């Protein structure tokens, strides 16, 4: 059996923001999938992650897709559009077109696509009804594009009502915490036919105090608004955390350069 080469592209969701480790680095669901895949299959998994926080969907495609395919993956996961949905005006059909473009290139290169929808934070955010309606429509459009493709691995998180609960989210209310990332990883592994550790579906609640309105606005909402007004991104100047393939060995929980 050929060794799995798994590459993730996307934004903060795929980078792992919200699942911070003690050393300040981020882990996230894609790292967990690589680990769970190796453990579940009993074979090493080669893994790279090119996702960078703050990216709109077409820059993800333009800057990450060909670099990912150059690594000759067997599987490529893709998610995007969350940052687009937070902009004042966004043509959802153009966002959906990006998913079609990624799938076309995967088909051309013989790569299995893992399609994810992001989790739904709308109930916690300003303009929650607008974000909810945009997310519902984007999810509908993307699923419709791949309705006749049983070969596309689908891990749909937007409809997961449990994952929308505040206990799965970090204090910025926009990124999942470690508990949320584990639940997403369990869903991806299940879609791949790999058994995830049962506890990943619902890890114990984290002791994260919910910020009051003033603190939340000062520490999270205000900086986000300033970035929008200045045309900057939280990902400016950042490099991908795993731009080259690393090997995740079964049972080790560790990775080494491939």
Automatic annotation (TrEMBL):
Its EC number is 3.1.-.-. The keyword Ribonucleoprotein does not apply. Residues 8-182 form the SGNH hydrolase-type esterase domain. Residues 232-258 are annotated as: Disordered. Keywords: Hydrolase. CDD domains: SGNH_hydrolase_like_1 (cd01832). One of its GO terms (molecular function) is hydrolase activity. This is SGNH/GDSL hydrolase family protein.
């Amino acid at each position: 059996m050929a060794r799995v080469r798994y590459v993730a592209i996307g934004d903060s969701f795929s980078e792992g923001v919200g699942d911070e480790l003690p050393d300040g680095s981020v882990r996230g669901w894609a790292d967990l999938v690589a680990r769970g895949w190796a453990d579940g299959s009993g074979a090493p998994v080669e893994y790279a992650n090119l996702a960078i926080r703050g990216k709109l969907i077409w820059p993800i495609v333009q800057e990450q897709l060909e670099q990912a395919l150059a690594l000759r993956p067997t599987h490529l996961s893709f998610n995007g559009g969350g940052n687009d949905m937070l902009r004042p005006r966004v043509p959802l059909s153009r966002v959906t077109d990006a998913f079609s473009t990624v799938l076309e290139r995967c088909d051309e290169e013989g790569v299995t696509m893992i399609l994810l929808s992001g989790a739904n934070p709308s109930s916690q955010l300003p303009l929650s009804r607008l974000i909810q309606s945009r997310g519902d429509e984007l999810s509908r459009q993307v699923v419709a594009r791949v309705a006749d493709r049983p070969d596309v691995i689908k891990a749909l998180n937007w409809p997961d009502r449990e994952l929308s609960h505040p206990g799965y989210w970090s204090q910025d209310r926009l990124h999942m915490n470690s508990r949320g990332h584990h639940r997403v990883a369990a869903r991806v592994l299940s879609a791949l036919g790999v058994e995830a550790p049962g506890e990943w579906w619902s890890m114990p609640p984290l002791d994260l105090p919910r910020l009051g309105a003033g603190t939340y606005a000062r520490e999270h909402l205000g900086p986000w608004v300033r970035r929008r007004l200045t045309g900057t991104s939280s990902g400016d100047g950042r490099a991908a955390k795993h731009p080259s393939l690393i090997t995740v060995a079964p049972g080790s929980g560790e990775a080494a350069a491939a």
